[in-house]
Structures are given as C-alpha cells and as structure tokens.
Design brief:
With 313 residues, the chain is α+β, with helices and mostly antiparallel strands. It has two domains: 209 residues, no CATH class; 91 residues, Immunoglobulin-like. Helix content is 56%, strand content 14%. The strands form two sheets. Strands 3-2-5-6 form a four-stranded antiparallel beta sheet, with no helix packed on it. A three-stranded mixed beta sheet has the order 4-1-7, with no helix packed on it. Strand 5 and strand 6 form a beta hairpin.
C-alpha cells in the first residue's frame, strides 16, 4: 500500500472502534447501519489485497534457483555418462545429440532447459541397458525426471506472484474509493443525527475521523516555558497538543495528528520534530501554576516557535 492508503486504513480502524463502542446508539438506525456495513465489509477486502500485494516472489525465485541447480547437476552426470558410452562405441549421432555443458545450462532459458532434459531422459532410456556399465540406472533417470518435474512447476511461479501483486494493487485503489465514498457521502452525513442526542459519540467519531498524515513534510514546533515576571525557566511542564477538529476538512485529504503530550526539559525548552499541518489547542499544566490554553497554527514544512509564561497559582 502507499503511505496515504496506510494512513486512511488506520483512520478506518479508528472510526470502527468508536462506532462499535456506541453500537447500542445506532444499531436500530437502518440508514446508519447500512452505511457502516459498507465500511465493515470493505476493510477485510482491503486487508486481503494488502497481504496479497506484499507477497514477494523473492523466496520463490530462490527456491526455483535451487531446483535448477539440482536439476543441472543430475542432468550433467547422465550427460557425461552418455558421452562416455557414445565415444567408446563411436556413436557420433548419440554423442552429438547430448552435446551439452555447464555453460549450456547457465545460458539457457527455463523452457530450453526443460527441452534439454527431455532429450537426455529419452536418450538415456533408449540406451538404458548399455548405460548400466557406465553408471546410469533406471533409478537415476527417474530421479532426473522427478527433478525436472519439480523445476517445471516453479517456472511460472515468480511471474504469477507478480501478476497477483499487480492485481491486488489495482483492487486496493477500488476498495479505498469504495470505503472513502461510504465514509464521506454517507457516514459523515449520517453521524449528524447524533450531534445533539449523543454528543460524546458525535465528537469521538470526528476525532477518530481525522486522517493522520505520516508521509508529508516534517513540521516542527519548539518553544520555552517560563515564569511570568521573573523569567525563571520551568522544567517538567506538561503541554498537550490537541487537534482543533472543527477546523479540519472532513475528507480523505484532511491531515493532522492525534493528541500529543510533551514535557519541557531542564531549561524549560521543548521541541516536537514532526507535527502535521493544522490548528492545535495547546493546554499547558504544571502543579503550582495556573493552567493556560493557547491556539497555534502549524504550517507544513515550517517551524512554529512559541514562548509561554505561566502565572503562579
């Protein structure tokens, strides 16, 4: 999945937790239940295709290489024995028909190797009685056939896995659109029914509804907390950054972050290295001092600097 897709899936998980928590509130609401039903049936489809997309052909390619090496070793042994027999008996036609080397196998395509091995097996079987003296038995030929069958079964697997991954990628785009349509054109509208009657459900839905952008440019916030008038720097001051949900665009492109808590260091300083763009309500708290609440705006890719002065309680 892409970064934005992962962020959106995490949002779907978040609203599912809240909606399930308030199941008793909406379960009798056929309209809301139908909208939510689309989301709950789409999430597993996204997960299935995510897993399929992540399937790599690397392991299969490695296994295929091992089987090719095994096949080559077995084939070259029999080739060597047939060549010895053909040379001793002056059977030039047979000798020419099995004129294969390690280099031949190294440079040949998969299907060509299958053809070469088929030829070797056929020549060996045709001369199996005479080849017994040269160390080739029916069991060895059968062993080569088994190795050939095992190798042949792997020829198309890497390509098949890649095709499945490509198909999963295409499916993901469709399922994310389906989920986004259900959320933006149905759930976001249907939740309004509970704005007054169930304000906790309503507010928690919109808090969970925020898509946390983990892929955008880093935005920083840094500052210092000190005592008003004296200027004394305060350590261990708790700052809670809460996204101002009412200011967010309620769409798949909305970006912000979840509530974040930070404490000042020894010299009253604090820094947040990565905070998504948006408006935040910052609550500042320290025992013995009056709480303070401020609002800050964070711009994408920029550093917001703030100085906070607390009054003693």
């Amino acid at each position: 999945m892409t970064g934005p897709q992962e962020d959106y899936l995490n949002m779907l998980y978040a609203i599912k937790v809240i909606i399930d928590k308030y199941n008793g509130t909406w379960v009798a609401n056929a309209v809301f239940a139908a909208s939510y039903g689309i989301v709950t049936t789409t999430i597993p489809l996204i997960e299935q295709n995510r897993d399929a997309q992540m399937t790599t052909s690397k392991g299969i390619t490695t296994d295929k290489g091992v089987k090719r090496t095994t096949l080559t070793d077995k084939a070259l042994f029999i080739i060597n024995r047939i060549q010895s027999y053909a040379t001793v008996t002056a059977n030039n036609d047979l000798l020419e028909s099995v004129h294969f080397t390690q280099s031949t196998f190294d440079k040949s395509r998969d299907t060509d190797i299958v053809g070469i091995c088929d030829t070797i097996i056929a020549k060996a079987n045709a001369n199996i009685t005479a080849l017994a003296t040269y160390g080739v038995t029916a069991a060895l030929v059968t062993d080569l056939q088994t190795a050939l069958t095992a190798y042949s079964s792997y020829i198309a697997k890497p390509r098949t896995v890649k095709a499945q991954s490509k198909n999963a990628t295409e499916n993901l785009a469709l399922y994310f659109k389906q989920a986004n349509d259900a959320v933006t054109t149905r759930l976001d509208l249907d939740i309004e029914v509970y704005k007054t009657s169930k304000p906790d459900f309503y507010s928690q839905y919109w808090t969970a509804r925020v898509v946390i952008d983990t892929t955008g440019s880093a935005s920083a916030v840094k500052g210092v907390v000190k005592v008003k008038d004296s200027g004394e720097l305060l350590k261990n001051v708790t700052l809670t950054f809460t996204p101002n949900v009412t200011s967010l665009a309620r769409t798949v492109n909305a970006t912000n972050s979840a509530e974040l808590v930070k404490k000042t260091a020894e010299k009253g300083q604090f820094r947040i290295a990565n905070l998504a763009e948006g408006t935040y309500i910052v609550t500042i708290h320290k025992i013995g001092y009056k709480d303070q609440v401020i609002t800050i705006n964070v711009a994408n890719g920029e550093t917001t600097q703030i100085i906070i002065e607390l009054e003693k309680a």
